[in-house]
Amino acid sequence: MEAMDQFHQQAYKVLTSGAFAKAMDISDEDPRIVARYTPELAASGTQSYTSEGPDSLLKFMLARRLIEAGVRVVSVSLSDFDTHSDNNNRMRHIGPLFDHGFHALVTDLESRGMLDDTIVLAWGEFGRTPKVNGKGGRDHWPNVSMGIMAGGGIPGGLVLGATDRQAGKVTSRPLPYSDVIATLYKKLGIDPQTLIHDQTGRPHVLMSDGVPVPELL
After folding, report:
1. pTM
2. Are 125 and 192 in contact (CB under 8 A)?
3. How far apart are alpha carbons 139 and 141 in whole angstroms?
4. Do β-strands 195-197 and 203-205 pair in parallel, antiparallel, or remain unpaired?
5. C-alpha Rg value of the chain to the nearest Å
6. Sign of CA pseudo-dihedral 132, 138, 144, 149
7. In the chain, what are the domain boundaries?
8. 89 phi/psi in degrees, rounded to 5
């Protein structure tokens, strides 16, 4: 352990602590909180996987429990939004699931006094084509995407950027992914231009491009 840097040591302590094991066991969670993360699914829409049932949103609750246990970064993946076919029916099912899970997590963090020092970010790698293809689906579209941020002292109620009516191209205030990542570093108190060295001694900066978004600071 002495040969490891402080960050590896911190991660190792979290993984081997009783707090982490306790966080992974949700059987002792308040049933009222479990109910808040468990929606009644609408009859419309197409469910393609067992992971899209009402219990699937308990992973959002697990994320909150892991943060409480000392985990600094938690990634939650919700189902499959890669709708190359049957897009509308798929979104009628998984869209409300995401809405419910995101709201439950943010309000849960807020009620526990954790939201101001926790950032919740929801996004994907790219958007979807403005036009529906022959199979009723929407394909990959890197020109326009979206993201939702909450917590961490970020002002609420902001909409940054705009697209045309088909969400096919940006019409104002484009924000690259690198700017969002730079904002996250800034919120963590880390200068995006911090110089670091890899294991061979070569110097790198955390962000070769991208600047923090002033409206989110």
Report:
1. 0.89
2. no
3. 6
4. antiparallel
5. 20
6. positive
7. 6-174, 176-217
8. -65, -40
